[in-house]
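Final report, closing paragraph on structural work. Over the funding period we assembled a curated collection of sequence-structure pairs, and we close with a single example.
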Amino acid sequence: MSQGQRLPNPPEAGIVNALRFTRTPLRFLEGIQSRYPDAAEVSVPGGPSIVVVTNPDLCHEAMDRIDDFSRVPASGAAALIAENGLVQTEGDLWQRQRETIAPGFGSGPLRTYVDRVGEQTARLHGEWADAVESGDTDRDLHRDMTTVTVRAATEALFGTDIGAEGAARMHRLMRQAGAEFEISATAITPEWLPLPLSDRAQTVGEGLKTMGEEILETKRADHDPENPSDMLDFLMLAERQADWPENHLRDQVVTFLIAGHETTALSTTYTQALLSWHPEVREKVRAEAHEVIGDDDPGYDHAQKLTYTGQVFTEALRLYPPAWAVIRRAEGDQRLGDYAIDDGSIVFLPQWSVHRDGRFFENPTQFDPSRWDDRSPGDRGPYFAFASGPHACIGRGFAINGARVALATLTKDFDVDVPRDALSDLLVTPTLRPGDGVDATLSPVE
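Its predicted structure, as stored:
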């Protein structure tokens, strides 16, 4: 045992707390956050303890120490999808993957991605205008934002636009995955009690792998090794120069097919809901959009100038972070700050509850973009929507700049009205997802 204080335990029995976590995980995290200034430990009979870290400094320390606090290996349904993708691997393999992929997230690909977001958002803008003119003003906002982000991401990362049909297919698969991967009592089932995979989980896994194979097949037909320009080009070049695990390329494609669009689709959806509920903020975004974009085609050149829209997006990510917690596993007995963490403990570093803690944010549940007037979301502190440390989100710049352009383009000419309870019952899966979409009503801005 690494020397250190024992973590405090909530007063209720371990199994009771563990079940509370699986039934209402966000509320459970908020309760731990409000009662324990640094961390707490929940014992799980027959399984590893759950450690919830509530101090952001300790969260960053754990994210920095990737050898001591590793990713939790994919298992069950999750292992069907992309076992060797960048978000799952560790050690030398992860390092090689990260170095290979990094050029695909440089300044050139960033410009390409944001320009593609601009094009796809302009296409959606035209679709919305036609719908409003015909009197069909009801939309599934999450579906629309998925279409924008997944088509932009596949074009920028893989060199191919999967089109409207491919985007709709991806949206269906991700909805099915959300229902399958929602946290439940199976999350605390002991490792020695294997659970069978459902037919739906296998269908989702096979569907995503098939999409990955189709993208690879298209890329192989067009790949020019002399002129690599996107992430998949760099991966294909590296495949020729070294040995990689079986299905490595497909796993990376599937990983970024999901990661390249999902959190941005979710976060831009949630931001528009918040704008609907705060029309005074929406008017400021609209004014900035008219000033910066005007009648131009939206794209990369506008992103950095949309500073207030960026603050709005940051604040939306604070309140509704699609990645609601970073989850790690203690490799051996560890010390985190002053506390002892037992080998195998599952360590939650929860953006959801840290972002809503009044110790770090005044009026923490209030949507207030002005709180970012004099603080930077890039500072290491209580805001870590994109995680931190070596495993921080590689696509952070893509997400932030693409979201700015998409939000400004749509807000400029439309009021998007969302019911007040639209985000009250989000599914807690590896991301926070709406169970049945996010209904919205469009009206043009005169």
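Residues 14-444 form a domain with the Cytochrome p450 fold (CATH 1.10.630.10). Residues 379 and 388 are 10 Å apart (CA to CA). We thank the funder for supporting this effort.
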